[in-house]
Amino acid sequence: MQNNQPIGMFDSGVGGLTVAHAIKQILPAENIVYFGDTAHLPYGDKSAESVTHYSLRISDFLMEQQCKVILVACNTASAIAFDALTRHLGSKALLINVIDPVVEYVQQNNKYKKIGVIGTKGTINSGTYERKLNRSVPETEVVSLATPLFVPMIEEGFIFDDISNAIIRAYLSNPVLNGIEALILGCTHYPIIRNQISKFYNFNIEVLDSARIVAQKLNELLENHSLQRTAPGGEDRFFVSDYTPYFEKVSNVFFEQSIHLQKVDVWKG
Could you tell me the strand order of the sheet in which 114-119 lies? Predict the structure, then answer.
């Protein structure tokens, strides 16, 4: 591995762009190779076998792009496929997910009596957040709620409107979340509606956005392995398994420039 190699990352759709944006803010010299598996989104309602299969094949594609790091920018894939990815990649690239950095952040900054986690069905049903948080901060009550409509809502562009506000209100009014002092957005799509979620709580609870936390952890990882890129060069590349106009629209908003999407079939072979 060399420091001028790119950072590879993948998600089921646009959600991982929140992490990519945070990475470019903290590590502006780094180049990113992003893969959005739009043909199979959302991952949250797929079987564990399917999510693992998609993740392994996408990681192979990112390795073909000579990536020095594979960032699993999807909570469902992080919860379900990370162990398989670790075995599959071995020492060929550094590997990081979007769950462990958030758990570590809560452990280091713990001040909550009750914390909530929202995510896809796959993430919540895996119990990964609850299991790791209960081990790291046993004194804190952890409650979880699956919010499966959020990802398709965001992918279809229903944000900052009456439809999204109604869906957000319907989920977050669930009694299981009563009394929480912080809420973990257990899906990288969710920071896109972070302000709406905060507004529901009248900005009285801490809404933990994993994007910046993960980007900071990636910075530490690269630094510890002397793999930080020292000078900018090259360009970021964005791949999708199926073209969707909204993906391009959101990517342009995040990166404040026109993004060229490349559709690629990584399932051959």
Answer: 141-146, 114-119, 182-185, 206-208
- Of 85, 180, 187, 192, which is the active-site residue? 187
User: Domains along the chain?
Assistant: 7-97+212-263 (3.40.50.1860), 100-211 (3.40.50.1860)
pTM for this predicted structure: 0.90
Options 23, 72, 74, 185, the catalytic residue: 74
> Is the Cα torsion angle 136, 142, 147, 153 positive or negative in sign?
negative
> Tens digit of pLDDT for each residue in 173-225?
999 999 999 999 998 888 889 999 999 999 999 999 889 999 999 999 999 99
Q: Does the active-site annotation cover 67?
A: no
Tell me, what amino acid is at 250? Answer: V
Question: What is the C-alpha to C-alpha distance for residues 191 and 194, in angstroms, rounded to an integer?
Answer: 5
Angle at 251 between CA 156 and CA 118, to 5 degrees: 55
Q: What tens digit of pLDDT does each residue of 102-155 get?
A: 999 999 988 899 999 999 898 899 999 999 999 999 999 999 999 999 988 888
> Annotated catalytic, 187?
yes
Q: Give the number of other Cβ atoms within 10 Å of residue 115's Cβ.
A: 24
Number of H helices, E strands in the chain: 11, 10
